[in-house]
UniProtKB/TrEMBL annotation, chain A:
InterPro entries named among the record's database cross-references: Aminotrans_II_pyridoxalP_BS, Aminotransferase_I/II_large, AON_synthase_class-II, PyrdxlP-dep_Trfase, PyrdxlP-dep_Trfase_major, PyrdxlP-dep_Trfase_small
Keywords: Aminotransferase, Pyridoxal phosphate, Transferase
Family named by the database record: Belongs to the class-II pyridoxal-phosphate-dependent aminotransferase family.
GO molecular function terms listed in the Swiss-Prot or TrEMBL record: transaminase activity
Required co-factors: pyridoxal 5'-phosphate
Protein name (record): Pyridoxal phosphate-dependent aminotransferase family protein
Domain Aminotransferase class I/classII large: 46-385
Keyword flag Membrane: no
UniProtKB/TrEMBL annotation, chain B:
Protein name: Carrier domain-containing protein
A Pfam entry, by short name: PP-binding
Carrier domain: residues covered: 9-86
Annotated source species: Acetobacter nitrogenifigens DSM 23921 = NBRC 105050
Highest rank taxon of the organism: Bacteria
């Protein structure tokens, strides 16, 4: 009996993925980015359609300059937790900027978006409470449900009636009910029906947390996400998000009007027991936020690009997500077919994400693509062409 | 048996209902019974188990918290858990 026996299943699955000389999809290396939309993979220029860099701001000159200035002034790291030596003036400043952007009183900044979900959800829903999750929730939300001590109940993906039914079953039970949904679902690009969810929250007295990781900077008149787009921000108790998608850096946040946020800071283990963000990341994040606010046209371009790419793939007869969003998922029937197509796309110079069950919602594999505001129309047309060529060559 | 009537639902009833529901899936072996192990005998992964339990929840008008699933190995275990939840436990 070896401690590694339990890894044999994953070893066998990996061997199947790479049988016949295919790549290991979990070991792709972008040798270096050439721009936000092109990277060097396997020594050649490759179109990037799987980086979540929705506004292209990972390469923002303003953010690069801000990071360099910050690192020269403050060094490369904080070496400590937010509740010890890891809070510098820039951390407070970033929290004020994010809170103000959302029009909320408070903001907690975390070292990653994963930790923001892990920390907020596990801390808010206590032992006698209920955590009510969309069935297709991100791993960070499921992991939060395991770190915390609440009773966990799933409802059918994006189904307000099912959410209502499950809350109704809990009527009269003691304990708070925390409902967690995502703005845009990361795997499929599906957008939450937040107006209906918010109405249920009001009716049942539940608490609502929305993870806008993939919708921040993407949806809403000012880019605040689905809650803004649907006009229900007042009903959302906690908005969680990340800097690692639309702002192109790293880090997570939670904004809220509840004054108890400052007490959460003292109970939230993924906030307390990890090093805080380094100052150059904070500086780059604030600069990227400036870029995002100063260039609302990025959001318009993103939306047009998403529509062009979605229509292009649909035109090829591929099974794409119903809703148009910057996440465009192509569903395939078999893992073998998905692996062959993904390898062929990369051979032809197009990088997308290969998502395999059980990490996908319905046991079917996905080629998950994400579109950027910085993609040109010609790059999108080329990406669609590559899909057509790859599909034709595989029959 | 009236759907959702707690007074008339025994563990045997619920277990039979679960077996019937499982047999509706052609991939499930035909010789399953209350003692069948959901993961080992039916080759369900963690997501398949959660999704299957969701179907049963609808049928029984009950919500099974995820932490209860950790203790469930067989069809009878699931039936016992559901009956207990329906009786307020």
């Amino acid at each position: 009996m070896s401690i590694f026996d339990k890894f044999r299943t994953v070893e066998q699955r990996l061997a199947l993925l790479t049988a016949g000389g295919g790549r290991n999809p979990f070991d792709v290396m972008i040798e270096r980015p050439v721009s936000s939309t092109v990277g060097i993979i396997e020594g050649r220029e490759t179109l990037l359609f799987g980086t979540n860099n929705y506004l292209g701001l990972s390469q923002s000159q303003r953010a690069i300059d801000a990071a360099i200035d910050a690192v020269r002034a403050r060094g490369v790291g904080t070496t400590g937790s937010r509740i010890a030596n890891g809070t510098q003036s820039v951390h407070r400043e970033l929290e004020q900027r994010i809170a103000s952007f959302f029009g909320q009183k408070h903001c907690m900044v975390f070292s990653t978006g994963y930790q923001a979900n892990l920390g907020m959800i596990s801390t808010l829903a206590g032992k006698d409470d209920y955590l009510i999750l969309d069935a297709d929730s991100h791993a960070s939300i499921y992991d939060a449900s395991r770190l915390g001590h609440a009773q966990v109940i799933r409802f059918k993906h994006n189904d307000p009636d099912d959410l209502h039914k499950r809350l109704r079953r809990l009527e009269g039970t003691p304990g708070a009910k925390l409902v967690v949904v995502e703005g845009i679902y990361s795997m499929t690009g599906n957008v939450a029906p937040l107006k209906e969810m918010a109405a249920i929250k009001r009716e049942t007295g539940a608490t609502l947390l929305v993870d806008e990781a993939h919708s921040f900077g993407v949806l809403g008149p000012t880019g605040r996400g689905v809650a803004e787009a649907e006009g229900v921000e007042a009903d959302v108790d906690f908005i969680v998000g990340t800097f690692s998608k639309s702002l192109g850096t790293v880090g997570g946040y939670c904004v809220s009007n509840h004054d108890e946020i400052d007490l959460v800071r003292l109970q939230c283990r993924p906030y307390m027991f990890t090093a805080s963000l380094p100052p150059e990341v904070i500086a780059a994040t604030m600069a990227a936020l400036d870029d995002m606010v100063a260039q609302p046209e990025l959001r318009t371009q993103l939306s047009q690009n998403a529509a062009q790419f979605h229509a292009g793939l649909k035109g090829l007869g591929l099974n794409v997500s119903q809703q148009v969003s910057p996440v465009v998922a192509v569903t395939l029937e078999t893992v073998e077919e998905a692996i062959a197509l993904w390898n062929r796309l990369l051979d032809l110079g197009l990088y997308v994400n290969l998502s395999l069950p059980p990490a996908t919602p319905d046991h079917r594999p996905l080629l998950r693509c994400s579109v950027m505001a910085s993609h040109t129309s010609a790059q999108i047309a080329r990406a669609v062409e590559i899909f057509a060529e790859a599909g034709a060559s595989l029959g | 048996m009236m759907k959702g009537d707690p007074m008339s639902e025994t563990i045997e009833d619920v277990s039979a209902l679960i077996v019937n529901k499982l047999l509706a899936n052609p991939k499930v072996p035909r010789d399953i019974n209350g003692s069948s192990k959901i993961v080992e005998d039916l080759a369900f992964d963690s997501l398949a188990v959660m999704n299957f339990v969701m179907e049963i929840e609808d049928e029984m008008d009950v919500s099974v918290p995820l932490d209860r699933l950790a203790d469930i190995r067989t069809v009878d275990d699931l039936a016992t858990c559901i009956v207990s939840l329906k009786n307020g436990g």
